[in-house]
Amino acid sequence: MSKKIHNFNAGPSVLPKEIFKKTSESIVNLDGSGLSILEISHRSNDFKSILSEAQELVLNISNLDSNEYSCLFLQGGASTQFLMVAYNFLYNQAGYLNTGSWSDKAIKEAKHFGNVTELASSKDKNYNYIPKDYIIPTNLDYIHITTNNTIYGTQISSFSKFDKTLVADMSSDIFSREINYSAFDLFYAGAQKNIGPAGATIVVIKNQMIEKINREVPSMLNYKVHIEKESSFNTPPVFSIYACLINLREIKSKGLKNIELENKAKAELLYEEIDNNPCFDGFAETEDRSYMNVTFNLNDENNSEIFEKLCKEKGIIGVNGHRSVGGYRASLYNALKIDSVEALIDCMKKLESLI
Ligand code: PLP
Fold first, then answer.
1. What is the CATH number of domain 256-354?
2. Rounded distance, CA 282 to CA 297, Å?
């Protein structure tokens, strides 16, 4: 039997084994249809039922009413949402909270369409915290936030400050915790971290939002068109959506509360080691630490070779930090099991004992 790989990649990243089993079967024969998922029409009843079940599950898991909200499975990643949000909804002024380079990229795209007010920024400390003391102007078309900052390992824990039209990039923490999804008028996430393979982007939008669209928006970038065409204006990413569906069923049956408890247990274990092990320092401010991406550094860079060798021997992959932060980042998405965190902690303890 091959050695277990502990996959800490930031995305695409570890996924539940059930996805691989079910999608492999579907490539040969989709649910006994005699056809592969790769060759069925996106207009066939087989695919229509996959798409509608996936959409219903997203709304159901979010505890949102399907009469009030729509779920879309689009393409182009979260990066396309950066511009779609502004193209559809930015007319005068929008407020963006700048908590990292993904927020920064969203701001850059939004500036093509209107004025952007940076509500606050944590750039002064290389985004290692979530700004808190700032005033939100009253005349905004919407507020845009990034709920979890994948690169820096910070996460927003309360949304009560945002009482305006709220838009969120949830790419790296969607369905990782129980939150009030009805606080958002629109949220989006590339599937490739907590939900499924790359290729599909989940967008949940309050139907009332389409009344705000007040300019000619090309069809592919127009939320109204995608809602009216039930997320099949053009060919949707059929295979990725099917894989997402398998995982969404798991998420639904496990429940967000249980998922959150598991994620917190994993992250707290690792943060405890970071705080107690003299070889390491956490990167993010303690109160803003992410439960999804744990960022940390070695106190002495000279130990990097030995630490990385220990990790390699244990089958640990994907822990190198993003180039803009350096150090290490352990991504603890839903599908990562606690034994992987324990394996990483073993390496950290071993390093401490060796030096
Ligand atoms: N937003 C966040 C928070 C991310 O972590 C990422 C990718 O890692 C993106 C946006 C970009 O997503 P995509 O590659 O789907 O455009």
1. 3.90.1150.10
2. 6
State in Å: Cα 79 to ligand 1 middle: 6
Burial 229-260 (b: 16+ CB within 10 A, else e): eebebeebbbbbbbbbbbbbeebeeeebeebb
Give residue 305's pLDDT band: very low, low, confident or very high (50, 70, 90): very high
pTM of the model: 0.97
Of ligand 1's atoms, which has the minimum distance to the CA of residue 81? 16
Residue 163: pLDDT over 90: no
Catalytic pick among 22, 193, 206, 314: 193
CB distance 162 to ligand 1 below 6 Å: no
**From the CB of 153, is ligand 1 less than 6 Å away?**
no
Q: Tell whether the model's pLDDT for residue 110 goes beyond 60.
A: yes
Q: Is the CB of 102 under 6 A from ligand 1?
A: yes
Alpha-carbon torsion 78, 83, 86, 89, what sign? negative
Does 3.40.640.10 match the CATH number of domain 17-254?
yes
